[in-house]
Fold these 2 entries.
Entry 1:
Amino acid sequence: MKRAQATLEYILLISFSAAAIIAMLVYMSRGFQGSIRGSAEQIGSGQYAPGNTSIANIETKYEKSVIVSTSDSTTTYGSEDGLIPGHTDTASVNKEESTVMITRDTDERLGAFHNDTWR
């Protein structure tokens, strides 16, 4: 009888110990998951904060200009007495084309523009 009672006591001791360990594992895993979540929130909280956000942008534009100028001229010449009159008609057309590249660098930090200039 004493041997059966000792075996029963050992079984109860082991079962209570196992139940206590299982209950502690639940609380420990919840605590561990909570600390992981807290760390993730701490790391990710400033990810898109204005102080940590910067944007660099380069924009290029091409400006094309065409200048057309025309001129007509008439030159009259001859002798002073007017016996040999003459004249020359001259017409000219001048066309100039140019393309200019314009670049703008934009650097945005803290929600305000810095170095926003065309060059």
Entry 2:
Amino acid sequence: MCGPISTGGFGSIKANLNSFNDAIINLQSKNLNVFDQMPFEIPMKNLKYKLSGGEYMEDILTNFYLPIFESGRIQELYFLPHWQSSHGSNWEHEQAKRLGIKITYL
């Protein structure tokens, strides 16, 4: 699942996370095996603020998410509305294109 959390989206992290959660539940109800990143959001937020003073950290993308994408276990990425307003989602979109991962827009 790809979409805005801390940058862009619906105007708040809470609204963005609600959008994520709703989409994950919807896809899981269709018997899709969805990588749910929600359990990682609080630790990632804490790490971001601890190490960078709140600035966006590209290291989270390259050190955490990139190995998952490159593992070959991700076959399709679903992009939420407003994904283009998110720095991380734009990065995910570029990685999907680079790695040949199927892209679906919700």
